[in-house]
Amino acid sequence: GAAGANYGWPGSEGPDNVASGVTAPVFAYAHSAASPPGSGPGGFFTGLAITGGAFYPSGGGFGSPWAGGYFFADLTSRFIAFLDVANGNAAYAFGSVTGSPVDLLAANDGALLVLTRTGITRFSKP
After folding, report:
1. Nearest alpha carbon to residue 45 among 20, 81, 14
2. What is the mean pLDDT of the chain?
């Protein structure tokens, strides 16, 4: 996002109530499944709150297509997803954790670390 931009909170959430002067999100998903399945914002992704995110470094060990993309997690659905910024911001499921995720970090050795409320989960090169 742009520095100083108005992202609408608390008057808007995701694509809802985005008014003039508010910057819409690049990617959003619904709190519950759409009918028909996959037809709502974010396709098949559902959850309550993105609680962590990290851009994966271009020189990281995962290589293509992960290099330069954005990993994010959902607090309640406990998924780890990938936003492919080089491919029109397409989103893909990447993994899941047993604890509630609160942050992500690309480690110096190239692993993706997911901090949960109960520990750390390490994802190595897929």
Report:
1. 81
2. 92
Distance in angstroms (rounded) separating the CA atoms of residues 66 and 88: 14
Mean pLDDT along residues 93-122: 96
Instruction: Write out the chain in H/E/C secondary structure.
Output: CCCCCCCCCCCCECCECCCCCCCCCCCCCECCCCCCCCCCCCCCCECCCEEEEEECCCCCCCCCCCCCCEEEEECCCCEEEEEEHHHCCEEEEEEECCCCEEEEEECCCCCEEEEECCCEEEECCC
Q: Taking residues 47-71, what's their average pLDDT?
A: 93
Q: How is residue 59 written in tokens?
A: 């020189």
